[in-house]
Design goal:
This protein has 13 helices and no strands. The chain has helices at about 5-10, 15-20, 35-45, 55-65, 75-80, 85-105, 115, 120, 125, 135-155, 160-170, 175-185, 190-200.
């Protein structure tokens, strides 16, 4: 079973790269169960500052990119829907993403990964693979994503705001338009470009 330090080294020290290069790599190098991985994710996302002490900006960006890669074991999008992990644990991982933005991404947008972070996480809602009427668990996960994204939307950095708008545009939550209207009303001096992007996100018209 991977320790937290081994978990960090796997993603940010280059261990995950073999899976991104080789579809037949197998999962033996990532010896942990989904529930334990969720605990490690929650710890990291709640306190991402530890990464600055150990890794370069490039390594940090690449590591978070690996966490979104469907070819890498225990990637975040798969973990969010893993029925072997208690729902409350998965929701804590999602909520911790607000801390990730507040304590790391809001200060450093790295090389673009923060903007794309929510893209694969909200993929099932964007593509219609999941809908709110699929059941209580799906509604709870979507609501948790929405609440987390609206928290990120209120961070100071326009880069974090744009990332949140990107995620909201793909999430298709019923309160998206309401949240974006409130965001724009509270920021009358937002740039025209970001205002236009917000309107497009409210309509679900983003790539």
């Amino acid at each position: 079973m991977l320790s937290f330090d081994e978990f960090l080294q796997f993603f940010f020290g280059g261990g995950a790269e073999v899976f991104r290069r080789d579809d037949d790599a197998g999962e033996s190098a990532f010896d942990t169960d989904p529930a334990s991985a969720a605990v490690h994710y929650e710890r990291l996302l709640q306190s991402p500052g530890v990464l600055r002490q150990r890794y370069t900006r490039q390594q940090i960006d690449s590591g978070f990119g690996a966490m979104l890669d469907c070819s890498v074991p225990m990637n975040v999008p798969d973990l969010v829907w893993d029925g072997d992990v208690p729902l409350e644990s998965r929701k804590r991982v999602i909520r911790a993403m607000a801390s990730l933005y507040r304590d790391l991404f809001d200060e450093d947008a790295l090389f673009g990964t923060p903007f794309m972070w929510w893209d694969p996480i909200t993929y099932d809602f964007e593509c219609g693979n999941r809908h709110r009427d699929d059941g209580d668990e799906v509604r709870q996960v979507q609501d948790c994503m929405f609440e987390t994204l609206t928290e990120i939307l209120n961070l100071p950095s326009s880069e974090s705001q744009r990332a949140a708008l990107h995620g909201l545009g793909h999430l298709h939550h019923p309160k998206t338009t309401e949240a974006i209207d409130a965001y724009l009303a509270a920021r009358p001096t937002v740039t025209p470009e970001l205002r236009q992007y917000a309107r497009q996100s409210a309509l679900g018209l983003i790539q």
